[in-house]
Amino acid sequence: MLLSVSSHFVAATTLLLTAATAQAQDVYFSQPFATRLYTNPAYTGLLDDYSLTFGFRNQFPSLVGTFKTNYLAADLRLDKPGRHHAIGLVFNHDRTGELNYTRFEVGGNYAYHTRLTKTLALSGGLNASYGRQQSPVNNFLFGDQIADDGTVTGNPSAELTNYPPVNYFSIGTGAVLYSENSWLSISGQHLNQPSLAFRRSTNLPMALNLSGGYKFFLLKPGPGVATREVSLTPTAAYSRQGASQRIETGAYFTASPITLGAMYRNIILPGSVNQQQVLAAIVGVSVGALRIGYSYDVGLTPLSSDLGGAHEITLTLRSFDKLENAYRRLKRRDYPLAPCPAF
After folding, report:
1. DSSP string spanning 54-101?
2. Name one Pfam family in it (predicted).
3. pLDDT (tens digit, 9 = 90+) per residue, 74-88?
4. How many Å apart are CA 322 and CA 257, to the nearest integer?
5. Helices H, strands E: what count in the chain?
6. What does pTM read for this prediction?
7. Cα separation, 22 vs 101, whole angstroms
């Protein structure tokens, strides 16, 4: 048992210390549509008149220093002029339990929505965010603090422990092309590749995300409030950040008010080595203005299984006026309903 705990602590320590010389990475959510404002600013105001979403992700719970992320986002589609504009706000906080590494980000989103044809629309978005990361190491125990007999001396270490917080500014952009049945999303985050270095040169590399899907309606909602949907939505996504890249594919099945999803993540790419295969199982329910989502990452390889996968929970309060939207669509003053899953 001691060996197992020690190996987990070494793994967590290695992940943190490697960040001092390697390129940093963003958190990767298992419910990308619930946390869509984080992935692509063009999603701002796309699915709701307004929404408020809280998310929590606990990754690698078997590690001593588990990786935890808190996410909070809000967006609002402005009525005037012409319902073209939407604004949003995104907060993100990452923390490793035992190591006390933290990263906080707050950003503002803006999106512009426009109709291209009767059935096709486009949303373009911009994001600007401020970030701060810090890694206090005063809880570490170094070799020069241990006596020959194995006891802790209590003396200060000669190792460098003064790592001041790092502040950075990041910009991103994206676009979503969509109809009532399909969508294609592309975004680029950290276009300026800000520095995250505590001591050495370390940059947050640009993150590229490309995703899309098609919704097959088995029962299509009609105009009015009392509507029901039964649909199947296959999706696929490709992301790349620095030297890391991944492909995932899966599907969502919706029978209002329940949504079930399964995503196979980290499909093996040519030339890739020891990629960790994960199956994300997702369940969501909509109750009035409330959406609740839960997902669990099931490890399909020995290492991902030993680390314990990941738990993710999202809660969303949202508003969408179906009657008003139906009227505007008849008058061609509004846009197709984006078919992206909500969870």
Report:
1. EEEEEE-TTSTT-EEEEEEEEEEE--TTTT-EEEEEEEEEEEETTT--
2. PorP_SprF
3. 999 998 777 899 999
4. 16
5. 4, 15
6. 0.82
7. 16
